[in-house]
Prior knowledge:
Strand content of chain B: 25-35%
Strand content of chain A: under 5%
Shape of chain A: globular
Shape of chain B: globular
Helix content of chain A: over 70%
Oligomer: heterodimer
CATH superfamily of the domain at 1-48 and 109-166 in chain B: Rod shape-determining protein MreC, domain 1
Number of strands of chain B: 12
Order of helices and strands of chain A: HHHEEHHHHH
Radius of gyration of chain A: 17 Å
Largest sheet of chain B: 6 strands, antiparallel, barrel
Structural class of chain B: alpha+beta
Amino acid sequence: MIFFFILLALVLVTQIVEFYIPPIDWMCNAHIYIAPVIVFYGAMALPFPLMLALALFAGMLLDALTVQVIGSKVEISMGWSILLYAVLAGIMHGLRPLFIRGRWEVHCILSGICTSAVVLAQYLMITFRRGSVFFSREVWWQIGGPGLMAMLMAPLIFWALHGVARLSRYPYLPERSHLE
Amino acid sequence: MNRTSIIALLIFGAILGYFLSFGTETTRRFQASVYQWLAPFFTTGSGLQKQITSVRTGLKSLEELERENGALQVENRQLRATNQALRDVEHEVNRLRHALNYRDRSVFKLVPAEIVTRDSSTWWHTVTINRGKEDRIDSDMPVVTDEGLVGKTTTVSNTISIVLLVTDENCKVAASVEGTREQGIASGERVAGGLTPLLDLNFLTKQANLQPGQKAYTSGVGGVFPSGLLIGTVKSFRVRELDGQAQLAPAVDLSHLEDVFVVTGRK
């Protein structure tokens, strides 16, 4: 349970830290997102109810910090990021046996794909509201860039979180030696 | 799926349904309270970032500081003198307007603010400032610098506010172009590849034929932005099927913005 609260705190901290990370100009201003990687790690390491709670917290925070309220309209209603995180985290959770067997690489790649999926879903939602759907080179970079960065960061973040889980004596530790 | 998971799923569904049922005002209030709750973290983060930046770029010798101080004092005296002259002109203009039965022109009431955070999202262009309801700031108030228009406030909490930048597609500003009778709507691009995104000035006449370098100002139509604020300068003009469109370079360098002013009214 302590590990779950640590993950909640880390999601909060990384969500704040993301405000101070400048976009990558050579990636057409793509942003770096760390919070989704932590949520997706939690999806694999936590049991189903706690995975849902983590997705709820992360989605609520993402919506509250990014949703745009202009005049009498809200671009993306509160709750959509919660649903999105829950669905993607659910998919990751389904691959948990693989993770427990110590196969991290699939999840690192999936973390990247799911991070891009969050950005893509946001883009589709605002596009349908504003009209004129288009996919330029910049759009693809801004969708793919965060995913690519998440993919690169995932092994390091997973390794660090694995260490935190060990320290907090988390019982769901994916131990290769136990299962092989 | 075991019983605990089903119960968790049901609770999750109920909470999700609750969030999805939020209306505009509830969302605004919820967002304001989350920002208010996180305000101390943002302020600390902003202070840390400034310290790091100043350590990296700001170590100056005493001689450089003295020189800079001297230059600033001279500039300060010049600005005071200009300000005094402008006050005289303002007084005279108002006296003449009064004689013609026109309403007095007045200067804006400005509240200075610091940028606390920049946008962390991909699709929205916003910044957060360290002023809120306690400083009499409300939503839909124009935000400016000495160089021109920055944007407008959207969600406002007690001590922190979100500013929608003029480069956001949702920030639509009624504009007029200097030296012409052209009027249009300026707004940002949905996706900007560079660090300084451009603005689109739409709904111009096909005959507008704007030249690079011409300045676009707020026209005052719409009620949010007062007239006469510099939005940007024309970079290019093209004729479309139904109207003319100009691309503007924003007057303010939004990527290096540190201090802004919120226009809270007129003096």
